[in-house]
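Listing S7. Sequence submitted for prediction.
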Amino acid sequence: MMIKLLDEIGIVSVTCAGFDGYSEKEDNYLNPEMEYYFVKKEASNLNQHMRESIYEYRRTMNINF
């Protein structure tokens, strides 16, 4: 994950765009063939994991969306 790399090299502030999470119903990529087979089934878990990770990185980093 890019945020992990930026944190490791000492970046203290980042702005993220296009970070809207995964959908269980809609295509998650412009080209649906790029989507892994498990993404729709695991969308809720993937979104929760990202939420928790961002929360942890916000302890040491200013993250804006």
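Caption to Listing S7: primary sequence and predicted structure tokens for the chain studied. The radius of gyration is 14 Å. Strands lie at 13-15, 62-64.
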